[in-house]
Design goal:
This protein is α+β, with helices and mostly antiparallel strands. It folds into 3 domains: 2-146, Sandwich (Jelly Rolls), CATH 2.60.120; 152-198; 207-263, Arc Repressor Mutant, subunit A (Orthogonal Bundle). 38% of the residues lie in helices and 20% in strands. It contains 9 helices and 10 strands. The chain has a 6-stranded antiparallel sheet with strand order 1-2-9-4-7-10, covered by helices on one side. Strand 5 and strand 6 (58-61) form a beta hairpin. Helix 7 (200-217) crosses helix 9 (235-246).
Length: 265
């Protein structure tokens, strides 16, 4: 399988974390599970392979242009055939500025982007008719540039959330960050639900979970050590959160169980 991550042009870097390209090269059977990452995505399926995902125990056929909001629980996916996919991975808070919609209704689902942006089907069609990755990326970048937020209020909210997310990396409390940003904790909660689709507390839980996965993917450590390094209250708390996000306990976790997730850093 070929996998590449591509950095967007400078004008899009405040909004887009990366583009990614996946090419299976030959027909194959793929079974994986989407795990929480904190990053909403748009995924263009560019081959005849039909993906299915499982939601609430029911198998659903994924649309050709997938809009994936915040994932807060393990979501099984599968396909058979020659896989070719091109993805747009947003920063945690920026997809809403392009979609012009609240993010919370998109949580834990794989939606059809054409239902949110009518012009998306034309972009998908154009991507099918260009043959180099560079030209495909160029088409997507042009599409995104045409939908950049221009409203001053929107730009202010994005800059505020930029600041808040950077502060959260310093392990400041949510109340402290709100106070330092001259906003109320209630308004901060509203901003998160509107633009990320999840609460500040859930966002921190996902960040902590991702950090714990990185530790588990490296050299062997005790669960107590991983729990301590990642800021969990105790080992039991770590195990409970980890299982809710992956469906397995940390002791039963193996990176090869989630091959596609291992491609992203």
């Amino acid at each position: 399988m070929i996998f590449r991550e591509i950095r967007p042009q400078a004008a899009l870097q405040p909004y887009i974390r990366s583009f990614w390209w996946m090419d299976g090269e030959a027909p194959a059977s793929v079974n994986d599970t989407i795990l929480p990452s904190g990053y909403p995505e748009i995924v263009f399926n560019l081959s005849s392979a039909i993906w299915e995902s499982v939601h609430d125990g029911k198998a659903c056929t994924n649309p050709p242009i997938e809009l994936i909001g915040q994932i807060t629980q393990p979501t099984p996916v599968s396909t058979q055939g020659h896989v070719q996919m091109l993805g747009v991975r947003f920063h945690p808070h920026t997809a809403a500025f392009f979609l012009k919609t609240g993010m919370a209704p998109l949580n834990d689902g794989i939606h059809d982007l054409s239902d949110v942006l009518n012009c998306a089907s034309g972009l998908h069609e154009a991507l099918l008719h260009v043959h180099t990755l560079e030209k495909k990326i160029s088409l997507i970048e042009q599409f995104l540039l045409e939908h950049l937020p221009s409203n001053k209020r929107q730009v202010y909210k994005m800059q505020l959330l930029d600041h808040v997310l950077q502060q959260m990396q310093q392990h400041e409390s949510i109340d402290t960050i709100a106070y330092q940003s001259n906003i109320s904790a209630r308004y901060l909660q509203q901003l998160f639900m509107e633009h990320l689709g999840i609460s500040p507390r859930m966002y921190l839980k996902i960040r902590r979970f991702k950090r714990s996965m990185r530790y588990l993917n490296q050299q062997p450590r005790s669960l107590t050590a991983v729990a301590y390094e990642c800021g969990y209250f105790d080992q039991a708390h770590f195990i409970r959160d980890f299982k809710s996000f992956t469906g397995v306990t940390p002791s039963a976790y193996k990176p090869e169980q989630f091959p596609v997730n291992q491609l992203f850093h």
